[in-house]
Specification:
mainly alpha, Growth Hormone, Chain: A, 14 helices
Length: 412
């Protein structure tokens, strides 16, 4: 598989490994771009519509809920018809929904179109994860996914500062317009260069019996349970930061939108560092030990943030430094979690990826709903939420994942 990384992945496509990683980075990078770019503008958007904070957070939670649910359909569609047609359809819908968000005349319509945007985004992310499984075995797939996550981190790095700058200079609608432009560019690249990676389409993938059978197989598989749990609890910690941080930094601590964007840039750079660390650790320690070490990083970050909050330290740096440490661990957990969750299912990678994404977004929706009801004008909900999820990450990393042997026994 090392040779495949340097030439044609698995011999299944004429696309080079570098081109595959670039395209997949754009596809999975759509998620942080869609969630992060408008975060600095969220308080201004809320004030502009005269809406409540809970309504504003629905623009995020509705997106992730639609994103999660849609994956249950996109996954089987990708297994039945192939990755390419599903990607093209999803990206076209994403561009149109992004334009509608830009022109939305009310908060209610913005929430609706953000949900449509999230549903369309599901096609990109599901297919990207499935393509990794199409082309690489699970252990190699974790390293490839970590490279894609580095590309994702580059997109995530630029999103909050760019969103803050555009919001300050031109208003929040221009920030949302960038999503349509990025989506259009990605769609054009897919039309031009992406080749189908699924060798054999599953003609029964959409039959109710096959759907239920695949989902039952996925949900009962111990490897899926372990790695899906890892990616879910790690994303729940990240989503706590995404949903609460703009209000805490801008409204509670008084930071400017640009300063907040730079804070999120620091988070993204830390995440990128985590993905590089992931690749080094995977080569040296393997999946299980790498995840265990990252679990220690995560729980240290959460404990530091929660401890400072309980001690009465309400400062941006008391939040930002632990957040950056948390993101280093997240950069290990996500590529390992995503690759590990689909690893046992070479013939149903789309369904496995979809179920993993659905569970992640369902938990994220619950996190966003809880935060919307518990934001109290302090940093405590943010800090306590990250502390809780960091403890859950460590628990999963040190128990469920340690019982798996992803590299040696990845088959069903």
């Amino acid at each position: 598989m090392t040779q495949a990384m340097n030439s044609t992945p698995s011999g299944r496509t004429s696309m080079s490994a570098g081109w595959v990683i670039f395209l997949l980075s754009m596809l999975i990078g759509l998620q942080p771009l869609t969630t992060d770019l408008y975060l600095p503008a969220l308080p201004a958007l809320t004030a502009g519509f005269g809406a409540a904070m809970s309504q504003a957070q629905l623009t995020l939670t509705a997106l992730v809920l639609a994103f999660g649910v849609s994956q249950l359909l996109w996954g089987p569609l990708a297994d039945r018809f192939g990755r390419r047609p599903v990607l093209l359809l999803g990206m076209l819908a994403y561009v149109l929904a992004s334009l509608a968000c830009t022109l939305a005349p009310s908060m209610e319509q913005l929430i609706v179109w953000r949900a449509v945007q999230g549903a369309a985004m599901g096609a990109a992310v599901v297919c990207a994860r499935a393509v990794v499984r199409d082309l690489y075995e699970p252990a190699e797939g974790a390293r490839v996914m970590s490279k894609c996550m580095s590309g994702l981190a580059l997109i995530a790095c630029s999103s909050p500062p760019l969103g803050g700058l555009l919001s300050d200079l031109f208003g929040w609608r221009v920030a949302l317009l960038v999503l349509a432009l990025f989506g259009a560019a990605t769609l054009a690249l897919l039309v031009w260069r992406f080749e189908e990676t699924l060798l054999q389409k599953n003609l029964q993938a959409l039959s109710p019996a096959m759907l239920l059978g695949n989902w039952r197989l996925v949900l009962r598989h111990p490897t899926f349970i372990a790695f899906a749990a890892l990616s879910t609890v790690s994303y729940a910690g990240l989503f706590t930061i995404l949903a609460a941080s703009s209000f805490v930094y801008i409204q509670v601590l008084g930071w400017s939108k640009t300063a907040y964007g730079l804070a999120m840039l620091a988070n993204s750079l830390s995440y990128m560092a985590g993905t590089f660390l992931c690749r080094r650790w995977l080569l040296r320690f393997g999946v299980r030990r790498s995840v265990a070490l990252a679990g220690l990083v995560s729980v240290l970050a959460g404990t530091l943030m929660g401890g400072l909050a309980l001690a009465g330290v309400q400062s941006g740096w008391a939040l930002l430094l632990p957040q950056c440490l948390f993101m280093v661990g997240h950069g290990v957990h996500q590529p390992c979690g995503h690759s590990g969750a689909v690893g046992p299912f070479p013939q149903a990678a789309g369904a496995a990826s979809a179920m993993n994404g659905f569970v992640m977004m369902l938990v994220a929706f619950a996190v966003g709903s809880w935060l919307g009801a518990h934001m109290d004008g302090s940093a405590h909900p943010l800090a306590m939420g990250v502390w809780f999820w960091s403890a859950m990450i460590a628990l999963v990393a040190w128990t469920l994942v340690q019982r798996q042997d992803q590299g040696e026994r990845a088959g069903p």
